[in-house]
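Reviewers asked in the last cycle whether our approach scales beyond single polypeptides. To address this, we selected a multi-component target totalling 262 residues and predicted its structure end to end. The input consisted of the following lines:
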Amino acid sequence: MEQKNLDQIIRETVARYMNRSLIVAGNWKMNMTVREGMEFLEKLGPVDGKVMIFPPYTTLAVLAGEFRKRGIIYGPQNFHYKESGAYTGEISLPMIKELGCDCLLVGHSERRSYYNETDEEIQKKIQAALKEGFSVMLCIGENLEERKSGQWKNVLRKQLEKDLEGLSADRIPYIQIAYEPIWAIGTGVSASTEEITETHRYLKAVLSELTGSDIPLLYGGSVNEKNAADIGSCPGVDGFLIGGASLKPEKFRKIIEVSKRE
Ligand SMILES: O=C(CO)COP(=O)(O)O
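The resulting structure, written as structure tokens, was:
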């Protein structure tokens, strides 16, 4: 399978960002068999705009061509930073490259909490993926206690500092961040537009300080077809990372529609 060269990926990333349509990314988590994924795509119909899907490995491998045909950017929800070896149950970057993936999800809070994924591992994964020419979507987020105690700014800054350590200037266009407050994931109740605006303003400032760039910043946590327009109009929100509502083609399609800007 032919791989895109770096210049092409950079041009596409810049073009995607310039026209300002919101990025709509679906994280299917541990859902969707191949058959269900195919049915989903058939019901979803044609898409335009910046649509991404992170399916489970099995579905990713079989449906890669279907995603590509529809202009959907796709990639895994996790990967190992080593190229190969005795790591039972893991998937490496060369395996992912073979499937023509563009963007890899890394650092999701479920991986951090259920599989004890550390910032050190996440940093290694990001470095390995960028070296291989992939773009990455890094997830960060604070828990309820950290939000309530006012620690959230420190927590989020530390995640960014540690996870992005060693990021070289030429790789900055390959980074996107998804801010996902853990307390809003899967609850049906998103953070409020005030909380999202305040947090995104803070994160944009931290990202600018760390990278000198306006890095795309998505919001995730109970985004659905009803609240997407409001959340999408918050300053500093460049798109959505969606769990539950990305499993239903009619909901996902509505979110894509309200995300178009031109
Ligand atoms: O974790 C999420 C996406 O990565 C968000 O999930 P929900 O949209 O189901 O809250």
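The mean pLDDT is 93. We regard this as preliminary and will revisit it once experimental data from Aim 1 are available.
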